[in-house]
Amino acid sequence: MKVTIRRTCVGLSAYIPKKDLEEPIISVEKENLWGGFVLLRNGWRLALPDLPQDTRLPITVEARKLSRGD
Q1: pLDDT tens digits, residue range 13-62?
Q2: In terms of CB atoms within 10 Å, which of 12, 18, 21, 38 comes out highest?
Q3: Domains in the chain: boundaries
Q4: In this structure, is the dihedral angle defined by the CA atoms of residues 18, 22, 23 and 28, taken in order, positive or negative?
């Protein structure tokens, strides 16, 4: 799914246009964000692509929603 990651005054947020949903990112697997998963406030876990650490925000990427067992 397409996800736009951006920096806000309170941290990172993820916007999913298909669902018209914007949620704060409350946890990241990898410190540099890319190549791991992020946890949204609504409980969704999204796997992000492996991008260079200096990737500028905002950016729209193809992410994969992980089930609770992944």
Answers
A1: 999 999 999 999 999 999 999 999 999 999 999 999 999 999 999 999 99
A2: 38
A3: 2-66
A4: positive
**Cβ atoms of 49 and 61 closer than 8 Å:** yes
Dihedral class, residue 6 (left if φ above 0, else alpha if ψ from -120 to 50, else beta): beta
Residue 51: DSSP 8-state: -
* Phi/psi of residue 16, nearest 5 degrees: -110, 100
| 37: its two tokens | 């998963």
Domain 2-66 sits in CATH at: 2.40.50.240
What pTM, to 2 d.p., does this model score? 0.90
